[in-house]
Structures are given as C-alpha cells and as structure tokens.
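Box 3.1. Reading complex inputs
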Amino acid sequence: SQQGEEDPQALSIQEGENATMNCSYKTSINNLQWYRQNSGRGLVHLILIRSNEREKHSGRLRVTLDTSKKSSSLLITASRAADTASYFCATDDGSGNTPLVFGKGTRLSVIA
Amino acid sequence: GAGVSQSPSNKVTEKGKDVELRCDPISGHTALYWYRQSLGQGLEFLIYFQGNSAPDKSGLPSDRFSAERTGGSVSTLTIQRTQQEDSAVYLCASSLVGGHTIYFGEGSWLTVV
C-alpha cells in the first residue's frame, strides 16, 4: 500500500522562521496530500499536489513534489505559534481502491 | 450533515467489555475510512469502505475488531473483549470518492481500564 514517511519526527523553531518538513513514499502516486493535526483530534486537509505538478502554493504554504525521488516537502514560511501542530503526508495511487495511508507525522513546535 | 460526526467523543470501558463507535460521514461521500491513533503516534489504518466494493479490512489488528457500513452511510466500528492496548483515539474520515481530499471527524477517545 502507499505510505508516506515524514521527517524530521520533531522540529522546533522560533516564530518567524521557516519550517520545512519532508515526506518520502515508495510507489507510484496519483496525488500527495498534506494534513495538519492539533492536539490529537481530527486532521485537517492543507494542500493536495498532483503527480504532474512540481510545486504548489497556498498562503504561507509551499509544497514541492519530486516523483523521480519519490519525495515531497512542505514549507511553512514566517511561522507563527499557531502553526504548532503535527503534520502528515498521505499518498493516493489514483485507483480509488486503496485507502490513503499516513506516516507518523512531524511534530512542529513554534516558539514565540 | 456539515461534517463527519463521531460518537461517543469519549468512552471509558472496562477490560473485556465490547464497545461500539459510530461514524456519520458527510452526506454523499462514498468513501469512508477508520484510523486509530495512540498517544503521540501516527495514524494506523484500520478499514476502508468504497461504495459497494468489498471493504479493505487489511488494517484491522485482530479478529476482535470489525466494522460495517449500513446503507452506504453510517459506519460502526466494534471492538470485542477490549484490552488496555486498544486505548487510543479512533478517527473516522470520509471523501467524495476514494483518493480525494478526506475529511475527518473529531475522533472517539477510548480508554480501557
């Protein structure tokens, strides 16, 4: 099955700095998605990037995708204390027959 | 409804008892997922329903776990003879079709004492 693996496992930065999280996966994908989770509750979708896209922006978020390296990165610019959360990537093979499988996530702490 | 609804929000049960967790997906969503998350850990896939297809049960950790989805809408996750290691947040999510953006409920916190 598809699986995203994020690194680092934990990241601590000062407010205003940029945060970069990485995701690697194993097989061909149709799209890759990033989600955010606050305090162990439901995840919230952040951004989706398709396999034929290389970069995508949404506000302070920038996602890149390198299908040749089977990797993606999520960049949060000018971080804020409110960005403190866990971030997960998930991949989809496009068949509709396999579930989104999530990695263990990156726990981001933004210190004011 | 407006979002994915899960109940109960919190459940404390005695070891050996059975529990049922309910998920009401977003209306019209054909795909429904159950995940489990232990404290400070990642999401563990449990089971996936997609339309009328046979569910993907490959993530269920033991035969004490089962799930059904009645009428293509509401789903119930049942854990029989609960053990302490079953303590976790059980997250349900739905999507319009498989592979699209999925929307999560707030989860059901299960504590087995």
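In summary: The mean pLDDT of chain A is 90.
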